[in-house]
Amino acid sequence: MTYFKKIFAYAKPYKHFVGLNVFFNVLYALFSAISFVAMIPMLNVLFGTTPKVDTKPTFTDFSEIKTYLTDLLNYEISQTVKEDPLKALVFSIVLILILFFLKNLFNYLALFFITFLRNGILKDLRNDMFEKITVLPISFFSEKKKGDTIARMTADVLEIQHSFLSILEILVREPLTIVFTLLLMFNINTSLSLFVLAFIPISGLIISSIGKALKRKSDKVQQEQGEFLSQIEETLGGLRIIKAFHAEGQFFDKFKTSTQRFFLFSNTLINRQNLASPMSEFMGIGVIGGLLWFGGKMVLIDQTLSGTVFMAFMLLAYNILTPAKAISKAAYTIKKGDAAAERVLHLLETKNSIVEPKNPIKIDAFNEKIHFESIAFSYDNKPFIKNFSLTIKKGQMVAFVGASGSGKTTLANLINRFYDVNDGEIKIDGIDIKSIGKKNLRSLIGVVTQEAILFNDSIYNNIALGNVNAKEEDVVKAAKIANAHEFISQLPEGYQTNIGDRGDKLSGGQKQRLSIARAILKNPPILVLDEATSALDTASEKLVQDALEKLMQERTSMVIAHRLSTIQKADLIVVMDKGAIIEQGTHSELIHKGGAYKRLVESQNI
Fold first, then answer.
1. What is the pTM of this model?
2. Which one-letter DSSP state was computed for residue 458?
3. Residue 585 three-state SS
4. Residue 545: what pLDDT?
5. Sheet harboring 382-393: ordered strands across?
6. 469 in helix, strand or coil?
7. Strand partners, 371
8. How far apart are CA 266 and CA 274, in angstroms?
9. Which site from 17, 75, 296, 491 is most exposed, i.e. has the minimal number of CB atoms within 10 Å?
10. Digit-coded pLDDT (tens) for 147-168
């Protein structure tokens, strides 16, 4: 129930709907009980057993209100029976119809208002989850499968809707229905009522014992759902490679194995859950059978109870069994939803390791230098960057070269605070970047990566990403500087052309030029270029390199280079190996030195 309470905390903004729902549920429960008692007058008319009341009763005080209303109803019906028995029957039927109409009207109104509550909680839950995944560090998603996160936001949230939120109605309506019905039943006959009342806790204990393993089994189902959603996400992302290597069968076999496990887990879970209905139904029939024997004896042998009153009592007993059955089924549902809520809340309550400073220092401009001061960084507790120190002055172009895994991209991630250093400091103008607000820090830095990350939207919106105040002329100007305007103009819808998933409607060079245009429009003082031309052909590289040179003018640039021909004009070239600097200097200085850099240059035949 702990998770249920946490989920239900989301109901606070919608508490007025809770009040309205409770109000109409009270009326529903009351009229649900009264509508069955109203059957007694009709049965009395049918069987000719209507109590004869010849004198119209008079109201004395509220303590006698029940007796007064009963006598008044019997008086009206007995007088009508004298005149026209059929008219009395019609009167009784109309009374029942009115009461059932009001009962169902109040039920609809209760459901109407709780709909806003349920959907409001789901909306806020999804919004909080989406906000959470956008602020969590990249390291979180390196450890977790994306499909598992998607499963938590989709399947698990839907499970919460079908389990926790679906029983909100039951929590008020069904217990109240039982209470009001029991009050009327005790008023009719105490012995029979005690017999029915004993059934409720016995039923609850049996249902509870069956449902103990539901949470564990439900958790397995949801974990497996996350597993095959991850496989779908990976397959769609790598479909070209899968087809190129004829690996469709391998991926299909892996997916089939996962869905087979899901099939087995789901069967076990649902079959156990399905026990709730037949078990409670069977126990209910057992109670009805006992009532028929016990009450029938009172009618036929003891003659302490009239047949019409006993029939009404049986209807009231049925009115208790239905909500009791719903409550017992809800016990299953809560246990099943508990696992989904745990997974959702685990995501929402995950602590962000990249902490926003309490009193952030605001930096409006970059004026002097970036300084890496004896920094160290580890991946999964394995040291990667060790005692790294470097100063990059304003306006400098500093290139980082070295073999894959030498730590070049890690430096780019650290300066953006996608990860935090384990030791040492990264300073901008003498201020530790951990003291600068994350939004403020990242506004100073523009990033162009090896893989052009674009979104399924128009070219205009991709260039203007993050710049809500961008004007059309500014977007066009940025595209021209990035050598992208010409190909954009030739597209059927120009800047409003949708570029498809990940920009797949464009070539590699076109996508990269849009990434550069996006960085130009942002106009940051610091640039991080992570192998921005390494994936391009020669013709595209020339256009992109020209665009990059325009972008880097009058800016401080950290260039992670694969093709060394592109960084010969750099003010400083840093050669890295295993997270450390092994050489640094200009192109000519490093060639003259004849060390690792020269060997890299010669290996590329520059």
1. 0.72
2. B
3. strand
4. 73
5. 382-393, 369-379, 423-428, 431-432
6. coil
7. 391, 427
8. 12
9. 296
10. 778 888 887 888 887 776 667 7
